[in-house]
Amino acid sequence: MSKTVSDTAAETLKATAEQIKGKFDQALKAFGDVGSVSKETYEAFAASFNTSIKAMETVSTETATYAKKSAEDFVSASKAIMGAKSLKEVVDLQNDYAKSAFDGFLAYSNKVGELTVELTQEIFEPVSKQMTTVFKKYTTPMEA
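^ thats the sequence. predicted structure below, dont judge the formating
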């Protein structure tokens, strides 16, 4: 099962990377239509793109790790339930598994949420800096 999750994560990463590249290409074309794109602006977009690929890899790795652990925990809980000697033991094992699975999901969600915020800031930092520089350059009044 973890191989399927890994394959799915890899396919998702590839598709997302292609979409992002397409959007960056569109953005660069738009800048080219308005005027020439400076080397610094291109480099900022390239840095942002590279950071976004690394960010997707990080999130995909976290997701695959979580999915693998969840599957292993499910199999372990299922075996324990199958070996239960009484209905009370089945209910207790099921309750323990449900609580553990929910806590694991919350921990995963929080971790991915924090990573997403952190990585999004890293992704947009180079472009934001360059755009600030460009806007300052073109909005500063020319001296006579």
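The longest helix spans residues 87-139.
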